[in-house]
Each structure stands twice: as structure tokens, then as C-alpha cells.
Amino acid sequence: MSECTSGERKDTVSSIINRFDGPYAFLSNFSASPVVMEGMTYPTVENAFQAAKTLNKELRVQFTRCSPNYAKRLGRRVDLRPDWEDVKDSVMFSLLEQKFAFGTPLANALIRTQGAYLCEGNTWHDNHFGACTCDRCLYVEHHNVLGMSLMRIRENLLQSL
């Protein structure tokens, strides 16, 4: 069963946010929020994350100038850095920490989701960073790394208040 809809939640959870669109679009990696990685500024977390898949600096420049949709497509075609599977979760967390830095409007918006379980529900079979809700993925393990990272950052922000 999907972590986005299961009853297996902490007692402190009062709701589930399982789509990062509409009023929660700011939670999406595609939402405009410049981040810096290794001296280059990217327009979204998605762009920077996809650029981090390669160690080719010239290729990374392309990710600074394209839409997040194109960045995702381009990221599927790059030669992956050899340690990608080992570092991808920490790269994502680091970029999200930057996006939701303490004292920023986005950090305040994330704090306002307090009490909600955050799950990047999707239909494109991403069960690592989210939880796909299609029939094919119904009984597949959902890691929801993006949602878990956002909740961890939210908790850190709350502790800093």
C-alpha cells in the first residue's frame, strides 16, 4: 500500500499532502527557486539535481539555462557519475536545505505544513523519491525520499524557531 495513503502514520500527523501542485506547488522540485551548486546557479532544484548526475562541467552549464522539464529529460541522457547511487539522496537533501533555508518565505511555507505527512505522489513510477499511485506500483515499496527529506527539513526549521 502506498505510504501516501496508508494509515501507518505518526499520531502527530493530522493530514496528508500527496500532490505537490496547486497550493503545495512550492514543494515540487520544479518550482522556481534558484539554488547554487559548485558555483553555478540553477533555476530549480530539479535542474541542479539533474546536473549533479554528471561530473562534466560543460554539460552542467546546459542545466542552468533550461526548463525543469527539459532538465529531467536531459538528465536521463547524461553519463552518470560513478558514485551517483551513493550520493543522490544526499545531493537532493542538500539542495532542498538550500531551497528551504531558515528565514525565507519558502521555509515559512514549509513550516505551515506542520502536522501533514508529505508524500510526493506521482503516476510516473518514481517510488524512490516519491510514491507512484498507479495499479502497477500498488504493492511496490515506496521510499518517498523527497517527502521524508522535506519533513526532516521542516522539523529542523521548527527546532530553530
Ordered list of secondary-structure elements with their pairings:
Elements: E1 15-17, E2 35-37, E3 40-42, H1 45-51, H2 57-63, H3 68-75, H4 84-99, H5 105-111, E4 116-118, E5 121-122, E6 131-132, H6 145-160
Parallel strand pairs: 1-4, 5-6
Antiparallel strand pairs: 2-3
Coarse morphology: globular
Number of strand segments: 6
Considering DSSP H and I runs of 4 or more, what fraction of the residues is helical? Answer: 25-40%
Tally of helical segments: 6
Largest sheet: 2 strands, parallel
Helix-and-strand structural type? alpha/beta
Order of helices and strands: EEEHHHHHEEEH
Radius of gyration: 16 Å
**What percent of residues are in strands?**
5-15%
User: What's the rounded overall pLDDT mean?
Assistant: 93
Uncertain runs = 6-11
Strand order, sheet with most strands: 1-4
Task: Determine the N-to-C terminus distance.
Answer: 35 Å
